[in-house]
Design a protein that fits this description.
Order of helices and strands: EEEEEEHHEEEHHEEHHHEEH
Structural class: alpha+beta
Number of helices: 8
Strand order of the largest sheet: 3-7-8-6-5-4
Number of strands: 13
Strand content: 25-35%
């Protein structure tokens, strides 16, 4: 059944043969990791994201179902900033039977999609993580504790060469609290004049709306969750197409409570950086 554009059926996943579907690797993905070689696939205006093993996969599915199948006012606001969820599908592929989440393809029909993946929050481990895990995360991402996010990946269109340039998580780890702002100047560099101002205005408006939601919501604690900023770098003869979406919910907790101050801090720094 369809509710708010998402498929909220909680019955067992439908099964399909990969040979009967038009599937291809999702070339615009810039971040994320999975248990094995299974990557994100694209099927028209949807993507198929592999369900992670164990509790992580179930948490992510449960979050999408709560957002798209729950009519509470608290979730209605954030729904517009979460990719539409169309249930799960089990696909017979080269690995056997693989379970995927079917999600909205945010850059469908974009000519030159530019994408920035930011892992949000000042805390990168779950509250019940073992001490050695907490220490590893602390030493691995000291910069994130300061600014409240880190760059996981970026795909930038270069008009001068009509090509894309990719930056991965290693680039993100090389940044410091004194030079991270240069990433945003580079990311929006392909845009010019009024088109640039329109994109920046829409991105900031959406970020402020997400910030406003975080100021009062106490249901979820977002750990290792991302914000995706995207726009179409093809500016000639095209309307402005851009957006901000929250993605990656395998570590979202609903048993912690309180304001998510770590995510809030990251949003505030992000908004101020783009404003500047």
């Amino acid at each position: 059944r369809q509710v708010h554009g998402g498929d909220c059926s909680k019955s067992s996943s439908s099964q399909r043969d990969a040979l009967s579907m038009t599937l291809s690797p999702f070339e615009h993905s810039v971040g994320g990791s999975h248990d094995d070689e299974r990557g994100i696939l694209v099927n028209g205006n949807c993507i198929l994201k592999p369900v992670q093993s164990g509790i992580r996969g179930e948490r992510e599915i449960n979050f999408y179902e709560k957002v798209w199948c729950n009519n509470t006012s608290e979730l209605a606001t954030i729904r517009q900033f979460v990719p539409r969820y169309h249930g799960c599908e089990e696909v017979h592929d080269e690995w056997g039977l693989t379970r995927y989440m079917k999600l909205e393809n945010l850059v469908h029909d974009m000519k030159k999609p530019c994408v920035l993946d930011l892992k949000m929050g000042t805390i990168t481990h779950e509250p019940d993580a073992p001490a050695d895990k907490i220490e590893r995360e602390r030493t691995k991402f000291p910069f994130q504790k300061i600014v409240g996010f880190r760059v996981v990946g970026m795909r930038v269109f270069r008009p001068e060469s009509d090509s894309f340039q990719r930056f991965d998580k290693h680039f993100g780890r090389s940044l410091t609290d004194t030079n991270f702002h240069l990433v945003f100047a580079d990311f929006f560099k392909a845009l010019r004049g009024n088109f640039r101002q329109q994109v920046l205005s829409q991105v900031l408006r959406q970020l402020r709306m997400i910030e406003e939601w975080f100021e009062t919501q106490t249901v979820f604690r977002f750990i290792a969750s991302s914000l995706l900023i995207y726009f179409d770098g093809q500016t000639h003869g095209h309307a402005v197409r851009c957006g901000v979406r929250m993605i990656d919910f395998a570590h979202v907790r609903d048993d912690v409570g309180g304001i998510d101050k770590g995510y809030m801090h990251g949003l505030q720094v992000l908004i101020k950086t783009i404003e500047n």
